[in-house]
Please model this.
Amino acid sequence: MDDLEARRARPLHRSHPLTLASLPRPTLGGRTFVLTYLLARALGRVHPRMARGPLARLWLTPWVHPSSLRPILDVPPELEAWTLEAGGRTLHGFTGGSGRTVVLVHGWAGRAADWRHLAADLIAAGWRVVAPDLPAHGMTAGRTTNMFELGDAVA
Model:
């Protein structure tokens, strides 16, 4: 693993201890979500162009379920936290193991911690696992994002 990191153009910076928590995020069904939805609906009835702002906020914000904001307590011991500068943002995530690399990418409104159990199984099978928190997800800063930023972060 050290040999792989030495050849990387932008090495992962490991930090300790591993915490699989999330930054505070707008919650699905929360007051802000409901008010934004109602505003978009009301403005859309007056004129569709007036609803652009609230609809963009609804579409580009990864609204999370309140349960995903709780810190994860059952963290496998073989995982290490890391950070990486990419596209003007600092991405966070976890890595572990050695061997061929598998990158685990979460979905919209997910986080790297969602992969912790699969990551532990892959590490036990001899794989190296890297799981990033994409922009505006998990521990990576931001409130809104789009598919282009997510693609840049994965690349």
In short: The first helix runs from residue 2 to 7. The longest strand covers residues 89-96. Helices lie at 2-7, 31-46, 52-60, 116-124, 147-154.
